[in-house]
Amino acid sequence: MQEPEEKKIALELLETEQAYVNRLHLLDQIFYTELMKEAKNGKTVPEEVVKMIFSNISSIYQFHAKFFLPELQKRMEDWICNPRIGDVIQKLAPFLKMYGEYVKNFDKAVELITVWSEKSPPFQELIADIQKRKVCANLTLQHHMLEPVQRIPRYELLLKDYVQKLPPESPDRDDAEKALEMIFMVAKHSNAAIAEMERLQNLWAVYQRLGLEDDIVDPSNELIKEGPIQKVSTRNNSTSEKYLFLFNNMLLYCVPKVIQVGAEFQVHLRINVDGMKVRELNDTQFPHTFLVSGKQRTLELQAR
């Protein structure tokens, strides 16, 4: 008799989980442990750097090796009496939120490996030495570190396939559909964590260019657009180069600094978006001009 399709997928889940736990073992018990040992001896890099590279890989390894893999193994051995995995995955799903931290840290971790490999030859040598071992299968540390980033999307694909192949009357249908929904939410949570981190990093970079003025630095602000603009002076019929930053709540009218030490711009004026009006002008001498008027003041500006 041929195996039912859903069982084949459940077995694939188990096999990939075994391989994944081996990869996590390599990251946590070999790379992390050995690099940490050398860092403690003061031979390679600060301990903090090693911790930052590997983030919360130890918790992820412990969870999969001690809980999820054994539960899956038990279930697959018992498949004839109890052909289902939906409930096991439902137990797993909430714990997958801890991937948010690892995924969010991934780019920084890869960057740290590059930077410290240049700074510290012993650090680079130790990584190269571990990479030569059979267990690494000729792949780099960075390549192995990518595996946890790709694991949740893999669960999602396998489970989607599993749900599609389940016969309508299967006792696992309800649980499997619920599990898929939970995994989908976790994947979304992970992506949202990355997007939020990128938003804050970009915002911080903008604040630094503005000289970190206390009353402007607010993590809830959203930068909508920025760019150079000409300020029209009707008094002497001329224009001068300025720069605008439009946030969700304010428009910053800035002057580029000539000597760029520290900040790149000086904030000359802030207009609250609340109550701000923008009106296009038909000026033959200065095309593409518009008026921005707010409670604070009115500006005549010219776009490129």
TrEMBL record:
GO terms for molecular function: guanyl-nucleotide exchange factor activity; zinc ion binding. SMART domains: RhoGEF. One of its GO terms (cellular component) is cytoskeleton. One of its GO terms (biological process) is cytoskeleton organization. PROSITE patterns: DH_2 (PS50010), PH_DOMAIN (PS50003). This is FYVE, RhoGEF and PH domain-containing protein 2. Residues 222-304 form the PH domain. The gene is FGD2_0. It comes from the Eukaryota. Pfam families: RhoGEF, SOS1_NGEF_PH. Residues 5-193 form the DH domain. InterPro entries: DBL_dom_sf (IPR035899), DH_dom (IPR000219), FYVE_RhoGEF_PH (IPR051092), PH-like_dom_sf (IPR011993), PH_domain (IPR001849), SOS1_NGEF_PH (IPR055251). It comes from Eudyptula minor.
